[in-house]
Amino acid sequence: MLIATFLLAVPLIPVNAVPTGLVSISPSSINNDFGTSFTSSVMLSNAANIAGYDIIVSFNPGVFTVNSASLSGTLLDPAKLGADKVLILRHQVFPSVGLIRYALVLLGVNTPPQTPNPSASLLNINFQVNDPSTSTATASDYPSQMTLPKAEIVAVDTVNGGPFTLPVTTNSATYMPPANLGLRNVGCRAVTDGFNTVAKGFTDGIFCRVVNNGGQSISSVGTFSWRSLGGVTGSATSAPITLAPGQAGEDDSSITVANANDILIVTGTATRQVAFQDGSVLSIAGPSDNFKIEVNVP
User: Are 112 and 52 within 8 A, CB to CB?
Assistant: First the structure.
């Protein structure tokens, strides 16, 4: 215990009925696109009289690159409390293994800063989402987790005196890139939603009309699955199409039905496909529509 060792001059004392604090990564759900940056904060809630901490943040280095880690604006910001009042014991970033460690303790502060209700930031980290065409990540790395393998918080007992290690639980964060697909008002449907099989054959076109609302080119496919009142099930996938930012397109496929009266309920889903260096493909489902096809045999 790095901080506890440093504070041995003031023995750690047992404290009864201390509420369990929560150390979490915020936001807990991240959906930034590839190539963009975002900031995650290590947050502390349900705690008071904080005198120091030792925190490790773990992440997948194939998925993220660390741009910076900062105490600016946090609960124990040296610029706010005074550089002589905050002793930074560890300030380490290990990009290749995906670890960030910060450990610090207050010095000569009679009244430790109170944790705002409901929470306060302890550390801010700016990440960039790596380009899948150049990173070491694979499709199996998504969704990707940011975790807190170590979260040791030291608080001060203002009643009995002396520091103590606050009991805490931790919450991780999850990253998943967005689909960046928006269905147009036509959505997914059949070319002919009701037809006579003798007059028009057994195959009906099905499609999803999509538009890329993102800021970079993406690959889109339409995935379709169906079940009929007669118990017929099946699925189909369109060929991939590439959409530039703001470009609209159509994911086309078809369905072949039996020569019998039936009603098919079809679900069409606009899906983004992301290719990685190892050849793996990540499919991210976007909006979906349900539609029906009525088959009338005379």
Answer: no
Q: Which of 194, 197, 251 is nearest to 221 (CA)?
A: 251
Whole-angstrom distance, CA of residue 169 vs CA of residue 166? 10
What type of residue sits at position 50? I
Phi then psi for residue 4, to 5 deg, are: -60, -40
Q: How do residues 151-199 score in pLDDT, each as one tens digit?
A: 999 988 877 777 889 999 999 999 999 999 988 877 899 998 888 877 7
153 class by beta-carbon count within 10 Å (0-12 exposed, 13-18 middle, 19+ buried)? buried
How far apart CA 106 and CA 165 sit, in angstroms, is: 14
Residues of the chain above pLDDT 70, percent: 91
Q: Which is nearest to 207 in space by CA: 185, 191, 220, 193?
A: 191
- pLDDT of 210 > 90? The answer is yes
Please state, in angstroms and rounded to a whole number, the distance separating the CA atoms of residues 261 and 278: 47
Alpha-carbon distances, residue 22 vs 45, 53, 120, 173, 293 (angstroms):
5, 13, 11, 14, 52
DSSP 6: H
pLDDT number for residue 114 = 63
Least confident range of 2-6, 139-143, 180-184, 200-204: 2-6
The phi and psi torsions of 3 (rounded to 5 degrees) equal: -70, -40
Q: What pTM did the predictor assign?
A: 0.84
In the chain, the domains with their CATH numbers are 2-175 (2.60.40.680), 181-296 (2.60.40.10)
Mean pLDDT of the 30-57 span: 95
Residue 71 pLDDT > 80: yes
Could you tell me the sign of the dihedral formed by the alpha carbons of 53, 54, 60, 61, in that order? positive
User: Among 219, 241, 223, 243, which residue's Cα sits nearest to residue 285?
Assistant: 223
Helix (H) or strand (E) holding 78: helix 78-81
